[in-house]
Amino acid sequence: QVHLVESGGGLVQPGGSLRLSCAASGSIFSLDLMGWYRQAPGRQRAMVATTTIPAYTNYADSVKGRFTISRNNTENMVYLQMSSLAPEDTAVYYCYLRKALTAVDYWGQGTQVTVSS
């Protein structure tokens, strides 16, 4: 099976930057969709960014131009570089993987990102 572990969350001031990392273990293929979702208190979990091959990335409108997703297939790592952070970015961020062939979804445990001065 696939196991996802996030890291890099924490407290950051508005306007600051933070990089989240997700380590994937198990049977991972380049075409498996990987990405990040987030869930703020009282809100539904929402897609932040996803990627398969480097040419394909998808971002939520709220993070376009501020967040960058990247992926290292050799190390089975996916990253989310976040800049110009604002309080509304405060949420638990979850790493996500969808198997290309079976459409089975996997989720990490989540990492808290808090943007506050």
Q: How would you summarize what this structure contains?
A:
By secondary structure, the protein is mainly β. It has no helices and eleven strands.
Describe the structure.
This protein is mostly beta strands. The chain is 0% helix and 51% strand. The protein contains no helices and 11 strands. Strands 2, 4, 5, 6, 9, 10 and 11 form a 7-stranded mixed β-sheet that branches. It is globular and about 45 Å long. The relative contact order is 0.32.
Main sheet makeup = 7 strands, mixed
Unreliable spans are none
- Strand element count: 11
Mean pLDDT: 96
| Element pattern in H and E | EEEEEEEEEEE
Layout of strands and helices, then pairs:
Elements: E1 3-7, E2 10-12, E3 18-25, E4 33-39, E5 46-51, E6 57-59, E7 67-72, E8 77-82, E9 91-98, E10 105-107, E11 111-115
Parallel strand pairs: 2-11
Antiparallel strand pairs: 1-3, 3-8, 4-5, 4-9, 5-6, 7-8, 9-10, 9-11
Quickly list its features.
seven-stranded mixed sheet, mainly beta, 117 residues, four-stranded antiparallel sheet, 0% helix, 51% strand
